[in-house]
């Protein structure tokens, strides 16, 4: 499945934010990587996959989906920073469990800080989609969730967020 439409939507949002916040002379790549790490952590927190000491169940499907697509916004932004405008997810990469999947994603993001490598980004993207699979999200659900949150993000900009 192609993610071209989402890259286009993200580029529009990014351009709007850069214009409205006068960030034309600022390199946002590392801030976007950090934002992706933070969103990934928020997602892991909602899944509670690493909280071996707790019996509390994960958050609702809707909350987890919203955190997932928050991360997707920054993942797409990182891809755009690398000059990627479309990507095909031919084979989602999945680890044995959610904890391993999150740790692998953190590692890939860290590697992208040191080396702006398109091949590495493609692996990261595939692992991120694999995480969505592991969380029970179809690509259609991910795309619809992204579109809904993108609209909210534009509305937030309208309101001076």
UniProtKB/TrEMBL annotation:
Name of the protein in its database record: Dimeric dUTPase, all-alpha-NTP-PPase (MazG) superfamily
Any Pfam family: dUTPase_2
Gene3D superfamilies: Type II deoxyuridine triphosphatase
Entry-linked InterPro entries: dUTPase/dCTP_pyrophosphatase, UCP030140
């Amino acid at each position: 499945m192609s993610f071209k439409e989402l890259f286009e939507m993200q580029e529009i949002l990014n351009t709007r934010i850069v214009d409205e916040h006068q960030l034309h002379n600022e390199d946002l790549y590392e801030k976007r990587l950090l934002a992706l790490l933070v969103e990934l952590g928020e997602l892991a927190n909602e899944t509670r996959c690493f909280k071996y000491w707790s019996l509390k169940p994960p958050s609702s499907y809707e909350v987890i989906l919203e955190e997932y697509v928050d991360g997707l916004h920054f993942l797409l932004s990182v891809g755009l920073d690398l000059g990627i405008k479309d990507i095909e997810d031919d084979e989602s990469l999945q680890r044995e469990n959610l904890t391993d999947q999150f740790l692998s994603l953190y590692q890939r993001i860290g590697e992208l800080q040191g080396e702006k490598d398109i091949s590495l980004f493609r692996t990261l993207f595939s692992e991120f989609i694999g995480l969505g699979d592991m969380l029970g999200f179809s690509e259609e659900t991910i795309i619809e969730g992204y579109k809904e949150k993108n609209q909210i993000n534009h509305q937030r900009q309208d309101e001076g967020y």
